Amino acid sequence: xxxxxxxxxxxxAKFRSLVEKETTPFLAVDLNxxxxxxxxxxxxxxxxxxxxxxxxxxxxxxxxxxxELGSNFDVASxxxxxxxxxxxxxxxxxxxxxTIKKEKDIRYSYEKGVRLYCSDSEMDIHNLARCAPGSEVFxxxxxxxxxxxxxxxxxxxxxxxxxAIDLILMARELGLNATGFSFHVGSQQRDIGAWDAAxxxxxxxTDRLAEHxxxxxxxxxxxxFPATYNQKMHPFDRYAKGINxxxxxxxxxxxxxxxxEPGRFLVGDAGVLVSEVVLVSxxxxxxxxxxxxxxxGVFGGLIETLGxxxxxxxxxxxxxxxxxxxxxxxxxxxxxDIMYQFNKYPLPLSLEVGDKIYWLSTGAxxxxxxxxxxxxxxxxxxxxxE
Length: 386
Ligand SMILES: Cc1ncc(COP(=O)(O)O)c(C=O)c1O
What we know:
By secondary structure, this protein is α/β, with parallel strands linked by helices. Helices cover 30% and strands 24% of the residues. The chain has two domains: 9-27 and 268-385, Lyase, Ornithine Decarboxylase, Chain A, domain 1 (Beta Barrel), CATH 2.40.37; 58-262, Alpha-Beta Barrel (TIM Barrel), CATH 3.20.20.10. Residues 53, 55-56, 74, 97, 153, 184, 187, 222-225, 261-265 line the site of pyridoxal-5'-phosphate.
């Protein structure tokens, strides 16, 4: 399929000039798309504080624009914290959402002014009480949704309701301001029902805590909102309407203060990764599948294609009369470096070495995931279209 246009007119001209002069592979990230996404999210959740999950795309220009728009930030490490602070963002706009953190990093973040933390274990609560005394803490709970999220985040993070209750009580005893809960329904979550079940779970814990005389005032709904890949999903406003309804149904009109931690939704659709064909081959004279090898692969920024989890939309410049489903693989000497073997992608039979292949909606979790020097290939070049 030949692309007509990737971005709106202004950005498209800048993108085309990059394609003319830059060697592939590279990622172009469109700031206008991010601005529109941010505004859409604001409109869908007018009463929620948006904390952009920095890990999704920590490019300085992206962070600076989001800061200017009024976004808050969720950081996973002190390195991300320093990046955000260096842009002049006040620490009161930053949450430390990683439940796995060193004691010295908690202390550092506290010294820098961070006062909002996520936790899901006894040990971490003790560390927080010692190194970030009096800070606000929310407890991450385990939720379902792995089957319907293309990049699940369950199992490793969060705790069950019984422990969540214990942690809130314990944190309060230790002098922390334990105010509520968070969850993450899984990244690229396409099923609205996943939020329904998760919100219901937080309501259940909220009620149990009320029996202990503890009132919950914060609910962090996490990320998970989908970008536009090859699988079916709803438009954003449908997710927003559904989630607002679940909140009303469970908590009534006076629900706790809300936080959202979007990553993929804000930046995913803003990116186009430009690559070119290195080689086209078949494995035997009569092989039914052609293999198309591109100069970007799993280790060059497309790591979320592992297990064919994230199914990017892929287009090329060549307009062939006839398409054939191909296997798409990367350039390294590693047999894991195959993006799509079972989900076949149709590309023109006339495809030639040097033809451009465009990977759409690659603005999230790509260039920072790219290896430093695997097989000698450099990290993925990234340009922001401003
Ligand atoms: C704590 C936390 N919050 C938010 C996000 C962003 O999730 P998403 O990109 O699905 O919106 C992540 C993603 O890993 C996360 O770990």
